[in-house]
Write a structure and sequence with these properties.
alpha/beta; Trna Endonuclease, Chain: A, domain 1; 5 strands; 56% helix; elongated; 13 helices
């Protein structure tokens, strides 16, 4: 298909822009040498490169590609630009943003628009020295990594403080005070995991009530720190609290002393369980940093959903 006069003028303009991107040809014996000829061959339009005077040869390469293999035109232009970037850098004269913008203008005149040449990040990279840009990107990446490490360190330090407080509470003779202080430990642990705990927890004796958010779901929370293992009665009361809220309400019960076998069995009979259980071992593993609390919760939620297992043991994860 013959080109219109408008297209021919645009091709001539493109040839002038691309002229300095690559050499026209070179010695066939030169290993790895890149030129307009080799690029044309690499995209399957090598027969359109006639050689000779460079600018007319570029014009003819572009015209014949448009006329006889129009579907390869974008591939040809991008290959020339890609090879030209490397060639010009080696010669100490990087391709400039305004050259690519002029090229884009002529491409539009022909009726094309190649997204890769309009990419803002690409154009921005041509505004200064590539080395300076690369150094800037490396610096930004290093800063991002430092921020990430600092956050991880801060999280670990907070968890360490919560752990030490918890262990101190284990030997406290005043169990009323221990229950009140446990509120702060649990709240701090959930906050450290970005689980948005409700503040403050309501404390009755050593019972802590509250809620937290995980994966956009709200979970009611109840915790007990009593010497005997938790019996069925406590779990039935908690289930009633959950059922009294809404059909979408879920819950987590924490008993630092664990649960009786009868209690775990009873709450899974007759009704679908709407909460799951954590014990002192789970809490210790989270405070020790062996497994993140979020991971513990997600594993228990999955076992509850898939198996109806309300008391999945964290030691199985380890």
């Amino acid at each position: 298909m013959s080109l219109s006069l408008k297209e021919s003028l645009a091709v001539s303009g493109m040839a002038r822009v691309l002229y300095g991107f690559l050499p026209g040809s070179g010695n066939a014996a030169w290993k790895g040498h890149v030129s307009f000829k080799t690029v044309a061959q690499s995209v399957g339009v090598g027969e359109f490169w006639i050689g000779g005077s460079k600018e007319p040869a570029i014009v003819q390469l572009l015209e014949r590609t448009l006329e006889y293999r129009r579907s390869s035109f974008e591939k040809l232009i991008l290959a020339i630009v890609r090879a030209g970037i490397t060639y010009r850098q080696k010669n100490g004269e990087a391709i400039k943003e305004n050259e690519i913008k002029r090229l884009n203008g002529f491409i539009l005149e022909i009726g094309f628009k190649f997204p890769s040449l309009w990419d803002e990040d690409f154009l921005r990279s041509l505004r200064g020295e590539n080395t300076a840009r690369a150094e800037d990107l490396v610096e930004k990446e290093l800063n991002a990594q430092k921020i990430k490490i600092d956050k991880q360190t801060d999280k670990a330090q907070k968890r360490e403080g919560l752990k030490n407080t918890f262990y101190a509470l284990c030997g406290l003779s005043d169990r009323q005070k221990a229950g009140l202080e446990l509120e702060k430990v649990l709240n701090g642990l959930f906050e450290n995991e970005n689980l948005s705990p409700r503040e403050p927890f309501r404390v009755v004796g050593e019972q802590i009530d509250g809620s937290f958010e995980l994966d956009n779901e709200i979970y009611l929370l109840e915790a007990k720190w009593e010497t005997p293992k938790i019996s069925e009665a406590h779990l039935l009361i908690f289930r009633g609290k959950i059922e009294g809220k809404s059909t979408i309400t879920r819950g987590v019960f924490i008993s630092l002393s664990g649960y009786t076998d009868d209690a775990v069995t009873a709450i899974t009979k007759g009704k679908q369980p709407n909460f799951f259980l954590l014990d002192g071992y789970d809490l210790t593993i989270a405070l020790e940093g062996q497994v993140d609390l979020t991971k513990i919760l997600k594993n228990k939620i999955r076992r509850l959903a898939e198996e109806g297992n309300v008391y999945y043991q964290v030691k199985e994860m380890l």
